[in-house]
Amino acid sequence: MQIQQTQEQPQVQEPQQSSLNIKSVLESLLFVARKPLAPKDLEEIVSQPKNIITEALEELVSEYDGQGINIIKVAGGYLMGTNADNADFVYNLLHARVKTTLSRQALETLSIIAYKQPITRAEVERIRGVNSDGPIDTLLEKKLIQDLGRSEAVGRPFLYGTTEEFLRHFGLKDLDCLPPQPNSGTEQDALFKSALSE
After folding, report:
1. Tens digit of pLDDT for each residue in 136-174?
2. What is the CATH number of the domain that holds 145?
3. Packing angle between helix 104-116 and helix 185-196, nearest 10 degrees?
4. How crowded is the C-beta side of 117, counted as CA atoms within 13 Å?
5. Which among 73, 72, 68 has a CA at the least distance from the CA of 89?
6. What is the DSSP letter of 151?
7. Which of 56, 72, 52 is nearest to 64 (CA)?
8. What domain count does the chain have?
9. Is 4 inside any structural domain?
10. I want to staple 77 with a disulfide (CB 3.0 to 4.6 A). Which of 25, 38, 105, 130 is the partner?
11. Are residues 67 and 133 located together in one domain of the fold?
12. What are the backbone angles phi and psi of residue 81, rounded to the nearest 5°?
């Protein structure tokens, strides 16, 4: 008797449409998108027919309606954004400013510390050419700069640098986001004055 041998063919598993949570995928894409996403653009990314994507998007629009975050139709696409009813509160957060007026001397000192940190008081004074006790004390009081420890130099003077409060008020993610260093004290002042203005 002849035994027939069969070779098993390797099977390639294709993603099953039912196993894909299309709405969850679309939520993630809309969350990270910086511009409206049209169904035709999402069709290629998600590998699903346009009608399924459109239906899922419309369901998301309904589900998010009235929440703090909405999914809105803009420029032929969909975008995740804050509820328009909360616009004033969002504006207050994003446009928070230092609730004080800084003198020209304080602005100049702040810009030097921001670009040269960590830096000692003596080094700030050497750059400015004048005593900087007053401006540094003001910036410490406003929590725009902080003591970062002591230098290894003679006398072990304090080192100063900017704070998280500084980053928050100037809308910076981190110090790498500082604009290119200005060429003059006047440009430094203008840079920080514009950021501090109401």
Report:
1. 999 999 899 999 999 888 889 999 999 988 888 777 878
2. 1.10.10.10
3. 100
4. 19
5. 68
6. -
7. 72
8. 2
9. no
10. 38
11. no
12. -150, 170
Full domain range(s) for residue 122 = 104-196
Same domain, 177 and 114: yes
Q: Which long-range contacts (CB under 8 A, 24 or more apart) does 166-175 make?
A: 166/110, 166/114, 168/96, 169/96, 169/97, 169/98, 169/144, 169/195, 169/196, 170/195, 170/196, 171/94, 171/195, 175/114, 175/117
Alpha carbon distance 35, 192 (integer Å):
30
Token duo for residue 7: 């070779």
For position 186, what pLDDT does the model report? 60
Q: At what angle do helices 121-128 and 133-141 cross, to 10 degrees?
A: 120
Q: How many residues are recorded in the chain?
A: 198
> In this predicted model, which residue has the larger pLDDT, 189 or 71?
71
- Smallest CA-to-CA distance from 118 within 140, 151, 142, 141 is with 151
Distance linking the first and last C-alpha atoms of the chain: 95
- What is the three-class DSSP state of 11? coil
CB count in 10 Å sphere of residue 148: 15
